[in-house]
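Cont'd.
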Amino acid sequence: MDLLEFARGPALQIAAYVLVAGTIWRLVAIILLKEKPEFSEPRGPGGLGAALKVIYTRAFTAPVFKKATLYPKILGYVMHVGLFATVFLFVPHIVFFQGFLGFDWPGLPNSAIFVTGVVTVGTAIALLVRRMTSPVLKLISNFDDYFSWLVTVLPLVTGLLIPIRFGIRYETLLAVHILSVALLFIWLPFGKLGHTFLVFITRGTTGMAFERRGAKT
Amino acid sequence: MKRTPTVGEILRAKGVSRRGFLKYCATTASLLALPPAMIPRIARAIENARRPSVIWLSFQECTGCTESLTRSASPTVEGLIFDAISLDYHHTLQAASGEQAEAARHAAMEENDGGYLVLVDGSIPTGNPGFSTIAGISNRDMLMDTVKGAAAVVAIGSCAAFGGIPGANPNPTGAVSVSELVKDKPVVNVPGCPPIAMVMTAVLTQFLTFGQLPELDKFGRPLAFFGKTIHDRCYRRPFYEQGKFAESFDDEGAKAGWCLYKLGCKGPTTYNACATVKWNSGTSFPIESGHPCLGCSEPGFWDKGGFYQPLSTGHFGSGAKLAGAAAAGVALGVAAAAAGRRRQAKITKEA
């Protein structure tokens, strides 16, 4: 078994099992947690509407913080949109998803994906520099933040290297790329990358709690 | 003593023109990535070379490799180069049989001790010796006996180079490649199912010209032919870059000649010269004929997933195992939630 076979086979299989088990573990554990008792009179219904409202409003910065957070906010959006495009609109990736979903969708030309990937890595580096230079961010950052950044950026970098090669064989680079994705799969449910599947659940829950307590959302 | 004709004399006797011969030399130099200044040297060496003795052993194979060489559309210089070698032993092509054939092999070995080439097609069974025998001799014994006095061994085709179909899972005969058995002689692998005739003869030409074998890659293949992927040299590559793919064998994309990646093309991971040297006197190669590359020159290509499964498709194991992982996740989640609830209750009680 060569490196590519290992990456496409056992490595990806184990990573997929960990991703599925870990994600469901985290979700079930959170959903089944006992709700905190409400001792005050509810000031609002705190239903699905409140959840959806906060999910929407938190997509934008509150006016009072707009100036202070404009730079990281733009970087954050560019990075997330770039990640989405490189993962879901690159045709070989679509073929990968089609392999287990059974359907596909239109993709973008490779050149567009390449440019998007470069921009995404650039914004990720800018965000890391900001984290490492801002005294407050630096203070509240831990291993999870830096490692999550690394496992997110590695597949991008290894993917961008595939067409460039640098004298390295295609299948070696492809294997390294798949292995970096396997690492991402394994880490995703357990670190801060868990926001991939928790972001809207936590925001919605916050919105419901806020409305029950009468907070303006 | 009878004078052995040179290769040049044999080619001239067969009607090969000077122009045609030099064209072959130029093509070979180009394929071997040699500078143009080497063309006269190749021509001189081939012209003056005495017929090298070649023993061709066929083991667990389908004769496709021999067919690749002998069934060319018209007589080619490559084919005639093969005629010009002293093919002293070849089951399919030789007239002799039985004891006479074996006597020819032994005679060639004795007369050319240390200087003959052994070409092998087919894998060698290492299980029961009776799985494949020739004149009552097991393939393994015949190979090991024949290579003793050889200058070099050329494994022709994927079976001889990597085990091929006989070596595919579950490999009932314990088939192995030549290089797994021959350790004390230089072995050149010329894989392919079958290999390109031009590649086979170019290896022989290099041996005739320089008295040495070509530079090899990590799988023992001549770098000049196996140094780049099919994908790198594919004329459909621009469509890959544009994201234009054939979705089925008869859709508009296929008719327009778009990239066959989605139909399982293994071009990106297959190292061979099909896209440049081509087949049938340079007519086309599989991708040009509308079929994805199977990756036949790569080790273990039979066991690398479905031929029509795209390269980027991962192997996620069975759905049952994924369901098992999901069930394990539910169990862990329930246990974690129960522990959390106990902790919550304890804190509430303490408060």
